């Protein structure tokens, strides 16, 4: 009985959030999700900082709704504590009840808006991401509800904002994962020394951090505004092609003409390349003479070349003009049964799986960390990574665009099982939201539709066929992949993918300690995947947990020496596979150590990083750095840094 009660309570909490999603859908923006940007016609203000925070009582999660906490200052409902935004709330305090809380938490803060915003402006409120589900009130009015973490959402809040008075924003955040959420999880009861409590479990191997994870912005647009921009690029000889499609929002009077749209193209230095194009139309095609192409890092001396598409929307009879500047990289992506090509050149991926994860902040956006990670990626000589196991912050993706890092862009579906129509809809929705956000990014070369789904189950066939059809319908210009972990013999989904990615822990989860089994097993498996599906194949995860500073020789599990040896055995396999013509990439698991749920198989989290959680290199980072740069030299003619090997003797130099 008690079990059922608790389970239901968990479901009720989430279903309230879900109910609200449907009720508020008309007010929550369903159009574009362009990143907030200042321009002559737009103002942006950050709401980041210290917010007020409190937990819902674990034994009565619905108190806040019943007592309508959103109608007063949160501090008037009970004791609040300061909480940084953006950040996960879990690791900020000394309180286990906060770190391990299951259910709802509440945030609030106040703000003023400038009087100048009154003039014909719309006021928007945008969250970069809140995990897992959120409801947002402004001055007591519910303005939006959103489900699925790691993705932005926004609403026009003009009608509820007060001028000349204090405004209050209240956010309820729910971290409960169910069989129909993405990713999946479940809640159950646990009998404690002080009564029954609920506890959450999940199969994925990273901590279910929660909170307001990414920046919160207020911004304005004119009443008729650029709602979305889509670009597709191509190359004809040395001419770059940019096809664009602009949509606008806002109410025009029935009698008035639609707005006119003009576009300009500026180069990286801000010089006009094309001016006043488009003849007022919302769709058009630009021809860029002697175009500078977007190239991946180390494939060109100037990788990540970005133009700026300056879009001007005018509704002249109302005296309105809206301006938005979209960064655009010109490049092509093609693929066949053995290769992936960017700008007609075959690519070989050398990268890693990653996490948004760090001490104290959890999954909270941190600019220092973003820049440091980006520096390390380039230092190692990698050219790519997978956004395992969810979409990364737009601020991180901006770096990938500008630095030329190839992104395998993954939605938050991890260890998918218990397939159902409700799950399918949610999974599709997560991909719709992801593609809406990232469709224009040149760095995004692949869509990854899931990680380690249970693809041997009979239902996986129709489920993933539907997912792939959905993605192809939204974007047919990029190949689709998935990180497969079931055996090729039992897999039912590879037939729908464009590129096969597989995860396998030879010498770790299987044949622990036997590094002499790795090379042939990796080769045999990659060949078998290719034979089964006749598609390009890449290895998306391999590795070993390694405690930084633990040295054991001969190589022994958990030591730095063992991680290095495991890698070398894989490198031997990869080099033999590369000669067979269908093997397109290697990604080690993981870039850095990261936190997981509490388990007996993890010592303070997952330690498979080549960097520690503080971003210091293990021996493996130096080791992989030598390989990735050697590959860049061999395949891309990159000039190698001169500190790859320390001086030993004259004969080596
Ligand atoms: C036991 O749980 C109740 C709520 O059910 C709470 O009020 C009380 O503080 C808890 N006591 C301890 C010692 O944790
Ligand atoms: C432009 O985008 C809109 C909204 O996504 C779509 O309905 C329309 O078909 C697109 N037009 C073209 C020419 O692609
Ligand atoms: C795929 O493309 C590569 C690179 O252009 C080419 O060498 C190869 O022959 C192509 N394979 C097939 C099966 O068309
Ligand atoms: C590519 O693979 C598909 C599916 O196996 C096959 O139908 C097609 O003939 C292959 N193309 C080439 C050029 O080998």
From TrEMBL:
<dbReference type="GO" id="GO:0005764">
    <property type="term" value="C:lysosome"/>
</dbReference>
<comment type="subunit">
    <text>Homotetramer.</text>
</comment>
<dbReference type="Pfam" id="PF02836">
    <property type="entry name" value="Glyco_hydro_2_C"/>
</dbReference>
<dbReference type="InterPro" id="IPR006103">
    <property type="entry name" value="Glyco_hydro_2_cat"/>
</dbReference>
<keyword id="KW-0325">Glycoprotein</keyword>
<dbReference type="InterPro" id="IPR036156">
    <property type="entry name" value="Beta-gal/glucu_dom_sf"/>
</dbReference>
<comment type="function">
    <text>Plays an important role in the degradation of dermatan and keratan sulfates.</text>
</comment>
<dbReference type="GO" id="GO:0005975">
    <property type="term" value="P:carbohydrate metabolic process"/>
</dbReference>
<comment type="similarity">
    <text>Belongs to the glycosyl hydrolase 2 family.</text>
</comment>
<dbReference type="InterPro" id="IPR008979">
    <property type="entry name" value="Galactose-bd-like_sf"/>
</dbReference>
<dbReference type="InterPro" id="IPR013783">
    <property type="entry name" value="Ig-like_fold"/>
</dbReference>
<protein>
    <recommendedName>
        <fullName>Beta-glucuronidase</fullName>
        <ecNumber>3.2.1.31</ecNumber>
    </recommendedName>
</protein>
<dbReference type="GO" id="GO:0004566">
    <property type="term" value="F:beta-glucuronidase activity"/>
</dbReference>
<dbReference type="Pfam" id="PF02837">
    <property type="entry name" value="Glyco_hydro_2_N"/>
</dbReference>
<dbReference type="InterPro" id="IPR023230">
    <property type="entry name" value="Glyco_hydro_2_CS"/>
</dbReference>
<feature type="domain" description="Glycosyl hydrolases family 2 sugar binding">
    <location>
        <begin position="44"/>
        <end position="222"/>
    </location>
</feature>
<keyword id="KW-0326">Glycosidase</keyword>
<feature type="domain" description="Glycoside hydrolase family 2 catalytic">
    <location>
        <begin position="334"/>
        <end position="631"/>
    </location>
</feature>
<dbReference type="GO" id="GO:0005615">
    <property type="term" value="C:extracellular space"/>
</dbReference>
<dbReference type="GO" id="GO:0019391">
    <property type="term" value="P:glucuronoside catabolic process"/>
</dbReference>
<dbReference type="InterPro" id="IPR017853">
    <property type="entry name" value="GH"/>
</dbReference>
<feature type="signal peptide">
    <location>
        <begin position="1"/>
        <end position="26"/>
    </location>
</feature>
<keyword id="KW-0378">Hydrolase</keyword>
<keyword id="KW-0732">Signal</keyword>
<dbReference type="GO" id="GO:0030246">
    <property type="term" value="F:carbohydrate binding"/>
</dbReference>
<dbReference type="InterPro" id="IPR006101">
    <property type="entry name" value="Glyco_hydro_2"/>
</dbReference>
<keyword id="KW-0458">Lysosome</keyword>
<dbReference type="InterPro" id="IPR006104">
    <property type="entry name" value="Glyco_hydro_2_N"/>
</dbReference>
<dbReference type="InterPro" id="IPR023232">
    <property type="entry name" value="Glyco_hydro_2_AS"/>
</dbReference>
